[in-house]
Structure formats: structure tokens, C-alpha cells
């Protein structure tokens, strides 16, 4: 699929300084050496653990374009950040077990010439999904490599014909207190909503995912349909989408309305931008013991850096 | 067996069992492979939470003794405090070794970029002298200053809450986001600290257990009347 992406020159200011990049190597060397063997042994079984009740578990030896192995199906389906179900990542899978993903419709409207409500099955027919192996970097500083199936959001947006006033895309998650116990918590401005600038939404990397490991996208991973924007922190990739709306104003997003100084609209993966509380310099790849350095734009700079030409990424975080 | 129970009170046994339960569970779950796919984070978070729980329990001893005229908890304060410190040590070791692989330059950078870790470090540093001077010999040697020193815990406990709340996604001051746990811990600590205000402490002390049972009975009375 790499033929899809044209290489774009990266501005020199956005290239990781050599010194940072070298210290990252030193760090990784040191990290590998220093990790204590005893605890390593204690942790090992859980890394390879499979869910007990699952049938045949899909496996893959595929890697991302940087050569890193995809995470196992059980990694991806048992460790989920999905506050509509629970703040406990391990509880989400069981709480989402009976979540109804069919029938499911996505309303696409706002500043478009042809608003339409699509059933997920219609979308799959109109825009046949393809495999996309992407890194996912959570703002909590862990990451995975995930083999999604999905289609480019741009295809859907072109079909509804955005008007010339449309500048942003707003997404909304289902809010169903009966099915999603976490949404009873009064501490969040439900429903979950997210947004992209139109050019970000039209980028070839941005997909709506409907599958994982060749199967339907499990509910705990945002099934039946979710956004995947691999160069942004995971919380931008909104799950269980029921509504897509084109707007002229920058839409409010859930996390930035809770803590605007901490979660910006852009939320591009950037080890150089100091988050007020979290360091984004390094991350733990799930399944690995030592940390690794975080890449600018999560390693997708060639395809997306041009979107932010002339923007101060420390101000537009 | 009989000798064991005559030597240790039920409260003592309960405290020791409870204190070690977190480590025991972590080891069992690590061996069984049920510790999530991010086991280092589980180790880190659960030892931190246990440290805080034990610290809260140590703060509960004085109010419980005052209200219920039951002196034993006061004697167990040190045990609870030392266990809290033990978990804080484990928590800190996991952070610098397992999580960050002793990469000191990265750790330094992370501490400076994450105020919640700075606050955590500060509370750990403040807790250290309390742990080391918790023994009788130091109590005698420091005299009046011992109490003053150990009252630092009134400052450390809220600091730990700040560390906990800031490590979560959300804003505890606006009651938004993932704040339920830190908020509940914070509330309990606040109550225990309020109980230490001299005027409130005095009125609690004059409140005898007999009065308390009478009050409870009076409240239950209407219910007992209705068949």
C-alpha cells in the first residue's frame, strides 16, 4: 500500500535533532541491559497469555513498514482504553461482550451537498476495506502495531460532497447508557466527540476501520466502525461512530473540553511537545519490556508533515 | 497455634495479611498470566495504590482510637506507616528500573516534564525520614521534635493525592474525567485530617461509645416498630 503515499519533504525543524535521536539509542541500549531478569521472567507469561474462552485466535507474522511485528489479537482485544465501558482497560472486553453492533448506521451530514445515512454493510459494499498495518500511540505512552481493515475516510467524504464552507469534520460516538455502563459517570461530557481538519480527514492515511485481523472489528476496539488516524494520539481515533458532520468551525472534542490546556485539537504524536503532565519522549510497545523513543508524527511524517507547514506545533498541540 | 494467637492480636494479623496481599496477588497473577498485556504498568499502579491505602489506614488509627476509645490501633500505626513506605519504595524502584530501565537521563527528563512524578518523588523523599525515625530509639532521641517531624504526614498525604489525581486523565479540581478514585481517597484523608483539628478532636473524644450506640438505637427504633 506504500504506493498510495507520496513522499513529502519534511521541514528541517521537524526532523528529530541528531542529539535526541542518538540519546534515544543510548537509552534503549541501557534499558535493555538494566532490566532485571527476575521480574522479566515474572512478566513473561502474561505477555503471551491468550483469552481462555476465545476460539481460534487469529495470528499474523506481519510487520509495519518499520519492521516491527504486529501485536497479537489478544493484546489488541483485551487491553482497551474505552471509557464508555470502563476506565479499567482489562474490563472493557467483558463489558462490551453483548454490545449490539448490528444493525448500525452512520449519519453523514452537515455542510455537504448529499447528506446520507449509511448502514455499515452499505459502506463495506461501496468502499471495500483493505488491510492497513498502523502503529497506535496512546497518550498514556504505550503503543501497539495493529492490522486494521478499513477504507479511506476521503472516499466517504467525496461521496457526500462537502460544500466550500466545510473546513472541519466532527465525529460522534453512540451514547447508550444501557449498553455502555461507563457513560453513567457524571464526570464526563458525553457523548464522546472528536474532530479533524478537513485536509487531515482527506489524507490517505486516515481510515474508517471496520475490521481487525481479518475479522469484524470487535466491540471493545470500537466496532462496528471507528476512525483511525495513526499520526495522532489514540484518543483522536474515535470509536463506535454514529455521526459524521462537516462544519465550518473547529468542533469541540471530549478531552479538550475536559482539560483544554492538556489535550489540544491536533494531538499529533510529538516527542518534542511537553504535555503539562505526561512526558511523550518515550513509549512502551505492548509486549516489549524496555521503552523505545517516540517518533514525530508516530513515524508518519513523510505523509503528514506538510499538513502543518508554517504551524507552531508547540502552540497547536 | 494457640501461642501464635495469644502473641498476635486479630488486628495485627489482619494488618500483616492485608499489607502483603497486594504483592501476593501480583505474583500470582503474573504467574497465571492475567496481569494484562502491560504488566509493568499494573505493577507500578497497584503498588502505588497500596502505598496510598496503607498511608490512609495509618491516618485512620488516631481518629478510630479517639472515637471508639480503643487504643490498639494507635499501636499499629507504625506498622501501617512502614508498610506504606515499603510499597512506596517498591513503587519507586519499579518506576526507575522496570519502567525506565535505569536510563537516568530519560528519567530526569521525564520527571521535569511530568509534574505528577515530581510531586510523587517529593512525597517519597519526605516520607523517608519518617520511616527511618519511626523506631523507639529515635522517638526518645528526638523528644518533642519527633511528633513535629511526624506531623509532616499531614502534608505528605494530600501531596500523594495530587500525585495520584494528576497521573489520571481528567481534572480533579473541576471534577471532570477519571477522578473517582483519587477523589474518594482525598475525601477520606480530608475527613481524617479534620478530625485532628483540636476543637473537633475534643468533641469527638467527649462523645462516648455508649452515646454512639444509644444514638444508633434511637435511629433504628422507628424501623423496629413497623412490622
Q: How does the SSE layout of this entry go?
A:
The complex is a heterodimer of chains A (317) and B (227).
Chain A: H1 18-34, H2 37-48, H3 73-78, H4 92-95, E1 105-110, E2 116-119, H5 120-126, E3 130-137, E4 142-152, H6 153-160, E5 168-173, E6 193-197, H7 198-202, E7 207-212, E8 215-216, E9 226-228, E10 241-247, H8 254-258, E11 282-285, E12 292-293, H9 301-304
Parallel strand pairs in A: 1-10, 4-11
Antiparallel strand pairs in A: 1-2, 3-4, 4-7, 5-6, 5-10, 7-8, 7-9, 11-12
Chain B: H1 2-7, H2 10-32, H3 39-68, H4 72-99, H5 104-113, H6 115-132, H7 136-142, H8 144-150, H9 153-166, E1 170-171, E2 176-177, H10 180-194, H11 198-206, H12 209-225
Antiparallel strand pairs in B: 1-2
Helix pairs in contact in B: 2-3, 2-4, 3-4, 3-9, 3-10, 4-6, 5-6, 6-9, 7-8, 9-10
Characterise the protein shown here.
The complex is a heterodimer of chains A (317) and B (227). Chain A is α+β, with helices and mostly antiparallel strands. Chain A has a single domain (8-303), classed as Sulfite Oxidase, Chain A, domain 2 (Alpha-Beta Complex). Chain A is 21% helix and 20% strand. Chain A has helices at 18-34, 37-48, 73-78, 92-95, 120-126, 153-160, 198-202, 254-258, 301-304; strands spanning 105-110, 116-119, 130-137, 142-152, 168-173, 193-197, 207-212, 215-216, 226-228, 241-247, 282-285, 292-293. In chain A, the strands form 2 sheets. In chain A, strands 3, 4, 7, 8, 9, 11 and 12 form a 7-stranded mixed sheet that branches. The longest helix of chain A is centred in the first third of the chain and has 17 residues, at 18-34. Residues 1-7, 16-22 and 24-54 of chain A have low confidence and may be disordered. Chain B has helices at residues 2-7, 10-32, 39-68, 72-99, 104-113, 115-132, 136-142, 144-150, 153-166, 180-194, 198-206, 209-225; strands at residues 170-171, 176-177. Chain B has a two-stranded antiparallel sheet with strand order 1-2. In chain B, a hairpin with a 4-residue loop joins strand 1 and strand 2. With 227 residues, chain B is mainly α.
Amino acid at each position: 500500500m506504500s504506493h498510495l503515499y507520496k513522499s513529502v519533504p519534511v521541514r528541517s525543524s521537524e526532523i528529530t535533532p541528531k542529539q535526541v535521536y542518538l540519546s534515544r539509542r543510548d537509552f534503549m541500549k541501557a534499558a535493555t541491559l538494566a532490566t532485571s531478569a527476575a521480574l522479566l521472567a515474572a512478566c513473561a507469561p502474561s505477555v503471551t497469555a491468550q483469552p481462555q474462552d476465545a476460539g481460534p485466535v487469529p495470528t499474523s507474522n506481519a510487520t509495519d513498514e518499520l519492521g516491527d511485528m504486529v501485536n497479537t489479537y489478544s493484546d489488541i482485544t483485551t487491553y482497551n482504553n474505552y471509557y464508555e465501558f470502563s476506565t479499567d482497560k482489562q474490563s472493557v472486553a467483558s463489558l462490551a461482550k453483548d454490545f449490539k453492533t448490528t444493525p448500525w448506521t452512520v449519519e453523514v451530514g452537515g455542510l455537504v451537498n448529499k447528506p446520507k445515512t449509511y448502514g455499515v454493510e452499505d459502506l463495506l459494499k461501496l468502499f471495500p476495506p483493505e488491510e492497513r498495518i498502523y502503529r497506535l500511540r496512546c497518550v498514556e505512552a504505550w503503543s501497539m502495531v495493529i492490522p486494521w481493515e478499513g477504507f479511506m475516510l476521503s472516499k466517504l467524504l467525496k461521496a457526500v460532497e462537502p460544500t466550500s464552507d466545510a473546513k472541519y469534520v466532527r465525529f460522534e460516538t453512540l451514547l447508550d447508557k444501557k449498553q455502555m455502563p461507563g457513560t453513567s459517570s457524571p464526570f464526563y461530557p458525553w457523548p464522546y466527540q472528536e474532530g479533524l481538519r478537513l485536509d487531515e480527514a482527506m489524507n490517505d492515511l486516515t481510515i474508517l476501520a471496520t475490521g481487525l485481523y481479518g475479522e469484524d472489528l470487535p466491540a471493545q476496539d470500537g466496532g462496528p466502525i471507528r476512525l483511525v488516524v495513526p499520526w495522532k494520539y489514540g484518543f483522536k481515533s474515535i470509536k463506535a461512530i454514529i455521526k459524521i458532520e462537516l462544519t465550518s468551525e473547529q468542533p469541540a472534542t471530549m478531552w479538550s473540553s475536559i482539560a483544554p490546556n492538556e489535550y489540544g485539537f491536533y494531538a499529533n504524536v510529538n516527542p518534542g511537545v511537553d504535555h503539562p503532565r505526561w512526558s511523550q519522549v518515550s513509549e512502551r510497545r505492548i509486549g516489549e519490556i524496555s521503552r523505545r523513543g517516540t517518533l514525530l508524527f508516530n513515524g508518519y511524517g513523510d505523509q503528514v508533515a506538510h499538513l502543518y507547514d508554517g504551524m507552531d506545533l508547540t502552540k497547536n498541540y | 497455634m494457640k501461642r501464635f494467637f495469644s502473641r498476635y492480636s486479630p488486628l495485627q494479623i489482619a494488618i500483616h495479611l492485608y499489607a502483603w496481599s497486594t504483592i501476593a496477588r501480583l505474583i500470582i497473577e503474573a504467574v497465571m498470566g492475567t496481569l494484562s498485556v502491560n504488566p509493568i504498568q499494573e505493577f507500578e499502579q497497584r503498588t502505588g495504590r497500596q502505598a496510598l491505602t496503607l498511608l490512609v489506614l495509618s491516618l485512620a488509627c488516631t481518629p478510630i482510637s479517639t472515637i471508639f476509645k480503643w487504643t490498639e490501633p494507635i499501636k499499629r500505626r507504625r506498622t501501617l506507616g512502614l508498610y506504606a513506605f515499603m510499597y512506596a519504595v517498591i513503587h519507586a524502584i519499579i518506576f526507575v528500573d522496570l519502567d525506565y530501565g535505569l536510563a537516568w537521563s530519560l528519567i530526569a527528563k521525564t520527571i521535569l516534564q511530568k509534574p505528577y512524578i515530581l510531586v510523587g518523588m517529593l512525597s517519597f523523599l519526605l516520607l523517608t525520614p519518617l520511616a527511618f525515625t519511626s523506631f523507639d530509639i529515635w522517638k526518645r532521641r528526638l523528644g518533642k521534635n519527633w511528633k513535629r517531624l511526624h506531623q509532616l504526614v499531614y502534608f505528605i498525604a494530600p501531596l500523594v493525592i495530587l500525585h495520584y489525581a494528576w497521573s489520571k486523565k481528567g481534572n480533579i479540581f473541576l471534577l471532570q474525567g477519571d477522578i473517582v478514585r483519587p477523589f474518594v481517597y482525598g475525601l477520606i484523608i480530608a475527613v481524617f485530617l479534620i478530625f485532628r483539628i483540636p476543637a473537633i478532636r475534643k468533641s469527638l473524644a467527649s462523645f462516648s461509645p455508649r452515646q454512639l450506640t444509644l444514638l444508633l438505637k434511637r435511629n433504628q427504633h422507628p424501623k423496629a416498630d413497623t412490622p
